Structures are given as structure tokens and as C-alpha cells.
Amino acid sequence: MANGSRQAAWEFFGAELRRRREEAGLTQQKLADQVFVSGAYIGQFEHAIRKPQLDIAQRIDEILRTDGIFERLCRKLVDNKRYADYFAEVVALEQTATKICEFAATVVPGLLQTAAYARAITIAANPFVTDEYVEEKVAARLERQHVLKAPTKPEYWVVMHENVLRVQVGDQKAMAEQLARIAGLMRERKVWVTVIPYTAGAHASMGGMLQLMEFDDAPPIAYTETSFSGTLMDDAAVVKRAHRAYDLLRVAALSPEASLDLMESAAEDYRRCTSTA
């Protein structure tokens, strides 16, 4: 389904939700209370600003007695095998974010990955899949990056641990190209990247990656991910704690200039190894 028709379908979802809610005599807040989300969320669903996760759609069906219509719509619209179920909404939210802040503990963020790096990551996690599967995943990863090229592109801030620079993903040439790409974007001032060095020791997100997103017309959210699941969080208190953790990560990082020097030095180390291999 093309992006335009998919958005139109989400708008239909929202309009139908509003119609069914009003028929049931419920305000957005009263429905939200029973579905266990905020009243603002129901409004965002109805205006197709935010897409509900499957379990929320199921609860809406239960409360409004709609015989599974919202679950079926949701399944159809999020049935995108390019992304894991828990990540599909994150990809959608990236398209409307005004600011994205990310902490990368061990892996280059998807929005910055080269094709070779993405391919190596995919094969490492799925060693027995077909080439077609791998290339589909790589294409999806690269497609996400279009958000940074759009006229309304968000500010993109990244704090990454030095692990990301030192853990070799793919061959040495792939790593050299990956780090050189990030360094190039830094020099062009298209992204803001700083690096937490090994010498910094413990830091505020020892549990792993963290992503924060801000929007013009919706509350900020936080997202965390493990190898097999991801969690979107919109509770104001939790998001506030996540922002504080990110502030602490930024304080622990090197300056942008020192981070760029370290990035380019690591890229050169990989290039040197390639030339002497």
C-alpha cells in the first residue's frame, strides 16, 4: 500500500472511531479511561496523527462493541513485514516528529546505517534466511532514512557509545564506510552526533538504546528496545525521566569536535587495516 493511500486509510480509521464513539455517547476522555490511554491519544487516533497499537484497537472494539472492526483495520494497516510489529508505529511516528534524540549503545542507529552495515546486522541476527529476505530488510532500513531528507525533516541528535565505533559489523571496509558516512553528515551539520568514550565509565542508559521524539501537536514519547521487543512510552512522568537520562548522556559525551575526531580516527583505523590485509 502506497504511503498516500495508507494515510487515507488511517484517516478513515480515525473518522470511523469518532463516529462509533459518538454513537456510544462517550467523550474522548471517557473512552480513553476505559481503554487505558490518555484522552489526547484518542483525539490523535481520530485525526490520524498517531496510529494505535493492536491491543489498543482490540480494547476499543470491546468497549464500543464494534465486532472487531478496529482490530481488522489495524491488522491490515500495520501488516508490514518489513518491520517488527512493535517497531511499525515507531517508523510512523518518525515521519511526523520535529525532533528525534537517540542513544546508541552498541549499534549504529538505523537512520544512519549504510546498506553494507544494515546487511551485516541482518545476516548476523538471521543467518539462515534467503538473500531476498536480507535485501528486503535492508531496503526498509534505507527507506526510513528518507525522513532526514524531507523538507520538514526533524532535528536529529545522536549520542553513541564508543562501542558503536569499535565493534566491527561486516568487514573492515564496511565499517570504514559506515563511520565515514556519519562523519560526513556531522561535517555537513545534518545531524548532531557526540560519542561517550570508554573512559567515561558508567552512564545513564546502561540498559541499552533510547529514543525520544517530539511533535508539534502531540506529547513527546520515549522508546526503548531489546533484541526481541520494543516499548513506546507516553506517560509524562516516564518521558520526563527518559529526557533526564538523555541529558546525562550528553553531559558524559565528548564535545562535537572531539567526537568527530574520534569518528574519523576510527574510520581511518579500519581503512588502514583494509589496505594492509
Poorly predicted spans: none
Query: What overall form do the CA principal axes indicate?
Result: elongated
Query: How many domain modules?
Result: 2
Q: Name the CATH architecture of the largest domain.
A: 2-Layer Sandwich
Task: Kindly report the spatial arrangement of strands forming the biggest sheet.
Answer: 3-2-1-4-5-6
Q: What is the makeup of the main sheet? A: 6 strands, mixed
Describe this structure in words.
- There is one protein chain.
- By secondary structure, this protein is α/β, with parallel strands linked by helices.
- It has 2 domains: 3-78, 434 Repressor (Amino-terminal Domain) (Orthogonal Bundle), CATH 1.10.260; 86-276, Endonuclease, Chain A (2-Layer Sandwich).
- The chain has helices at residues 3-23, 28-35, 39-46, 54-64, 69-78, 85-94, 115-125, 131-144, 162-166, 172-187, 236-252, 256-276; strands at residues 99-104, 155-161, 192-196, 210-214, 221-225, 230-233.
- A 6-stranded mixed sheet has the order 3-2-1-4-5-6, sandwiched between helices.
- Helix 1 (3-23) runs antiparallel to helix 5 (69-78).
- The radius of gyration is 21 Å and the shape is elongated.
- The model has no long low-confidence stretch (mean pLDDT 90).
Secondary structure elements and their pairing?
Blueprint: H1 3-23, H2 28-35, H3 39-46, H4 54-64, H5 69-78, H6 85-94, E1 99-104, H7 115-125, H8 131-144, E2 155-161, H9 162-166, H10 172-187, E3 192-196, E4 210-214, E5 221-225, E6 230-233, H11 236-252, H12 256-276
Parallel strand pairs: 1-2, 2-3
Antiparallel strand pairs: 1-4, 4-5, 5-6
Helix pairs in contact: 1-5, 2-3, 4-5, 7-8, 10-12
